[in-house]
Amino acid sequence: MKKILVTGATGMIGAHFVKACKAEGWDVLGIARSSAASRLSGETDDKVIRCDITDRSSLCTIFKKHRFDGVAHFAAQAFNSVSWDQEWYTHQVNTMGTMNLLNCVREYSPDATVLLACSSAEYGLAIPNEGPLKEDRPLRPVSPYGVSKLVTESIGYQYFANYGMKVFLPRLFIHVGTGHPPATAIQNFARQLALIKKGKQAPVMNVGTLTTARDFIDVRDGVAGLMLLQKSTMYGMPVNIATGQAHSIRFVLDTLIEISGLSVEVRQAEGLLRPSDEEVLLGDNSRLRSLGWAPRYDLRETLHEVFDDWMTRV
User: Fold this and answer.
1) Exposure of 102 by Cβ count < 10 A (0-12 exposed, 13-18 middle, 19+ buried)?
2) pTM over 0.85
3) Which residues of 253-287 are buried (b: 16+ CB within 10 A; e: fewer)?
């Protein structure tokens, strides 16, 4: 039986990845910060270790006790919006945390495959007529988060090139699913609409920029792609985890309002605006499709599930 370590196991993507690995019959051990303990269920608690990836000694303790066939690294400060206010923390977790993990893998489980969650935010500024972004396109990140993920990917490539480690470098476009905090536009919109629906907020939507466009992918489709990549030999090669279609934030908002059945006023809130923002992020998914991947969920279906999820949460 293969044994895999999953960092960030209680996050949205990490939790779905854990389920996918268990469905394959793998022995899964997860890592989560102590602050994520409230999201642990009794049945999985014994398989999730409280550990902060910025604490190298704690990571080493885990690697000394276990030999892993695979490592999947999702633990991160994962939000563009947060990175503007917590730049130093973002780099501490994403840069140093990744370095700590790769050092432990190299020392204690050098033959393990390593899946590093990289990001579309690495591409940075793009223009609409540039077309789907291919992996060999120059990277120009504009947010602290995007820069930290570029460093994450660079460290991963360094360990692949210098030490022959089996490192996968998936560039994740925006993954959407249930159980996510309201730190992204979709989750924030759905939460506000649920609050309005339940009479807990006035029928006014506070929004940021609505003109940008993103390649949104259902987390289940994204994880299916990651599982295929993990079984391949595309080491050291960035691979877009994307649908190949972009939708504007305005389209997402209008669709969620339609799903909610509400009539609301939309107001732009200065506090939700960023110093700079990519106009469009659309991924070329040719490499992913070459592995036999195809999407199963459309965006409207995903948005419906996210809204229903927030109706149970607020």
Assistant:
1) buried
2) yes
3) bebbbebbeeebeeeeeeeeeeeebbebbbbbbeb
pLDDT tens, per residue, the chain with 314 residues = 899 999 999 999 999 999 999 999 999 999 998 655 444 444 444 589 999 999 999 999 999 999 999 999 999 998 877 888 899 999 999 999 999 999 999 999 999 999 999 999 999 987 767 779 999 999 999 999 999 999 999 999 999 999 999 999 999 999 999 988 888 899 999 999 999 999 999 999 999 888 889 999 999 999 999 999 999 999 999 999 999 999 999 999 999 999 999 999 999 876 655 555 678 899 999 999 999 999 999 999 999 999 999 999 99
Amino acid at 206: N
The CA radius of gyration of the chain, in Å to the nearest whole number, is 19
Tokens 């199963």 belong to which residue?
Answer: 296
- What whole-number distance in Å separates Cα of residue 242 and Cα of residue 254? 22
Is residue 88 within 8 Å of residue 57, measured between CB atoms? no
Backbone dihedral region of 132: left (phi > 0), alpha (psi from -120 to 50 degrees) or beta? Answer: beta
Q: Would you list the DSSP string of the chain?
A: --EEEEETTTSHHHHHHHHHHHHTT-EEEEEE-GGGGGG--TTTGGGEEE--TT-HHHHHHHHHH---SEEEE--S---HHHHHH-HHHHHIIIIIHHHHHHHHHHHH-TTSEEEE-EEGGGTB---GGG-SBPTTSPPB--SHHHHHHHHHHHHHHHHHHHH--EEEEEEE-EEE-TT--TTSHHHHHHHHHHHHHTTSS-SEEEE---S-EE-EEEHHHHHHHHHHHHTS--TT-EEEE--S--EEHHHHHHHHHHHHT---EEEE-GGG--S---SEE-B--HHHHTTT------HHHHHHHHHHHHHHH-
Place of tokens 């990490």: 14
